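Bumping with the actual sequence this time:
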Amino acid sequence: MNKVRDYIIVTAAYWSFMLTDGALRMLTLLYFHDQGYSPVKLAFLFLLYEFCGVITNLFGGWLAQQKGLKTTLIYGLALQVISLTMLSFLDASWSEIKAVSFVMLAQALSGIAKDLTKMSSKTAVKFLVPKDQNSQLFKWVAILTGSKNAIKGAGFFFGGLLLQVWGFKSSLLIMAAIILVIFITTLLILNGDLGQAKSKNRLKELFSQGRNINLLAASRVFLFGARDIWFVVGIPIFMSEGLGWSFSKIGSFMAVWVIIYGFIQSIAPKLVKGKDNAVPDGKAATTLALLLTLSMIGLISCYFGLNQKPEVLIVGLYIFGFFFALNSSVHSFLILDYADNDKAAMNVGFYYMANAIGRLVGTLLSGVLYQIYGLKGCLVGSLVFLIICMLINIKLPKKMPA
């Protein structure tokens, strides 16, 4: 019963955080686009956020093993409250350099917060499921990850709506209050020694992860880089400039895309089944990466080669989202299954460091490619990343390690 309670608390903390994380991204992007910032400048607003995610995941896993996952989880929630409150002090009269620097600093705190919360929540599942129940592990991971992304999708809509109704400052304070409630709940109720290692791993072991985890981490860099190349700056700015959509309409599309993506992730165990309901392995990851690559080829060919109607683009992005969700869900399972129990937090932290590197590179390229080549450049860049991801997956083991 305690494990179920802890799972519910961890999930609630993760949900609330991702709701504000999605909303904050839309608030920042749309607010500064409305202020006249270029795509490259918009990308720079998020670069320190992603860079801090790289560092946080690398050392956060080690910290979690020393102090327990509860500690890193509440640190993440507390930093998000600080970040949101800090951003509410942004003054429209400031110079562009001062405003960008201030937002980058606040986003850096939010980046640390996000990855502490993400690493803590996902690693916790490893300790809440019996060791020999891989199917149950896949199911719980899929539910946590899928529901998280559905909530983050709602956050995109929430952010666009808050900006339109309440304005920038009030929206940030509302979100800070939500996280504060969850922070207090987690602090008082969650099991204190969850995920704390019996033996302490030395800091230098951060880079001794093993071949399978290194390959999966490399694949993750290009998988999430492929998404963020078009997702972070390219698509929302194209919808504003090229299609003339309103803040709330852009937020609604982003929300629906991520919600559907999250729903597919949550039912991935039913969609990705091997013989005798076996859990996925490297072969499944390679096949799914191939399907995702083909979906991007189809999107580029149909939209730019045949018909540039918005409906064609939207449908193509939803198809991409379907296969991306399956790829992401299988990756999230594989890292927990590859992870060694006594190094689980370090393994997962290293893996999500790779995730953050992919997002960092994807975010930068999203702004640069859109400003130089437009949306087509973003989608072609995504295709290149997907091909590399698929080639790396070929080297993953075809059978799960014992």
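The tokens above came from a reply further down the thread. The chain is about 80% helix and 0% strand.
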